Amino acid sequence: MKKVFSYILGLTACSLYAQAQETVYPARPQQGLVFLKNATIHVGNGQVINGGTIGFNGGKIIAVGANVAIPMDDVKVFDLQGQHVYPGLIAPESSLGLTEVESVRATNDYEEVGEINPSVRSIVSYNTDSKVIATLRTNGILLAHAVPQGGLISGSSSVVQLDAWNWEDAAYKTDNGIHFYMPRLMARSNPFGSSAAGPSNDAVKAAMAKIDEVKAFFRAAKGYLAEAKHSETNLKYEAVKGLFDRSQKLFIHCDLVKELIVATDIAKEFGFDVVIVGGTDAWLITDVLKKQNIPVVLAQPHSLPVMADDDVDQPYKTAAQLQKAGILFCISNEGFWQQRNLPFNAGTAGAYGLSKEEALSAVTLNPAKILGIADKTGSLEVGKDANIVVSTGDILDMKSSVITRAYIQGREVSLEDKHKQLYERYKYKYDLK
């Protein structure tokens, strides 16, 4: 028995040692002035500065421009020799840090039992030790929106920065929104040949009943919050208080036109600050969305259209159509490990109607506006956090984008990740040059 125990202990120790070798520690706070010069600076708001310089101190940007004077003493200056400088990219609508291995239940902590759980906070489940996080930094993504899932009202989301010891350190903007996953309002085809009056139509009816259930919850919460005093505290009603005073946003996950119309009706009835998530058919009702000033977090464009009679490249074109209609939107990428491809999804939108700088804004300044953090990040402007990415080429192009430096709040963060470690490991094993 002692031999078995020693063997298990030895394996555990080896495992911990192997993991320890892969560990990258969060960077310490910025010390002293830092200037990056001779760079092509993409501000994030459409402006590009050739041969520019950006300086930051104490985690904040202090200078940006073509003719920035650099102090002579106590300053670190890096000559980028024409490399490109971008705002840190922002990944909206992600389960990053809430799941690690999809097939291993113990690593999944993104949903709770039940249909209506507004009091659930995703931020407290955020795992800063996730191996996936570093793979996002490698592609220039420095902030993410950790979103709960499951049920109808799944809880509150938070924005996190991707270099932290724990969730308290990672928190960039906590509990910024409540998430409502609208049931699909589409009659599904029945493979067993049931009549039109059968289960397929019942699915739409059941979905409408679920939507009515959510509306009833909000009406009850409104009545509860209007009371001066409560005989008992209702945590679920308390959790949506921010929706009624508009300090929080209601993120409604839906795609079809019928669902989008329901979302606009909810915004009208309750006066909520609503954001559409998914929005596959948003291009069909741009006038309605524009009139109600409802932004859209677009699902990733690398997908097929929902309806059979849509253009096959419709998902690629939707971003440009929303841009032309004057609707605030950003581009997302569902899941967690998939988020590393976010800049290249924006690049696809850039090839289908958006300009390069508009595509960049769709993953920097636009998501910052939608998530309520544009006062701190999303563009390279004086006074904002020094969330900065340096690339040898176009960050939206998979072939030319090579990230050489990244700063979160002025701290230079590691660009080491599991993928690079495995690459070096097997290059060494097979003696590849």
Automatic annotation (TrEMBL):
GO terms for molecular function: hydrolase activity, acting on carbon-nitrogen (but not peptide) bonds. Gene3D superfamilies: Metal-dependent hydrolases. Transmembrane segments: none annotated. Residues 350-412 form the Amidohydrolase-related domain. Keywords: Hydrolase, Signal. Residues 1-20 form the signal peptide. The keyword Lipid biosynthesis does not apply. InterPro entries: Amidohydro-rel, Metal-dep_hydrolase_composite, Metal_Hydrolase, Metallo-dep_Hydrolase. It holds the Pfam family Amidohydro_1. The keyword Metal-binding does not apply. PANTHER family: ALPHA-D-RIBOSE 1-METHYLPHOSPHONATE 5-TRIPHOSPHATE DIPHOSPHATASE. This is Amidohydrolase. It comes from Chitinophaga lutea. The lineage of its organism: Bacteria, Pseudomonadati, Bacteroidota, Chitinophagia, Chitinophagales.
